[in-house]
Amino acid sequence: MTQVTLAQLIISIPLLFVLFFGLGFILNMILKTTWLPLALFFGVVLYVGRDVTQIFTIVNAVLFFSGFLGVLGGIFTIRTLRLKGYRMF
Could you tell me which residues come within 8 angstroms of residue 10 by beta carbon, excluding any fewer than 6 positions away? Predict the structure, then answer.
């Protein structure tokens, strides 16, 4: 298994946050289901992580939580926009 350098980790954290924020936002906007992106996120993580023996490392935990925070950010952004009256969301 290859090692992740510090530069890769620093770039990966905001990249995963923005990626999962965007995916969660778009899924919420299209399907109008608030918590579906979070369920899909955990489903994909469990599906991918079932075959990996070295899944529980510090680097993987940091990357997991950056994606998790991105999904939560998308969910709460959509909820806030809906509460403020933006009906297209």
Answer: none
Share of the chain above pLDDT 90, in %: 42
Cα 89 to Cα 86: distance, rounded to the nearest angstrom: 6
With beta carbons less than 8 A apart as the criterion, state whether 27 and 40 touch: yes
CA angle 64, 65, 69 (to 5 degrees): 125
The CA distance from 12 to 30, in Å, is 27
Q: Whole-prediction pTM value? A: 0.81
Phi-psi region of 85 (alpha: psi -120 to 50; beta: other; left: phi over 0): left
Q: Contact, 62 vs 17, CB < 8 A?
A: no
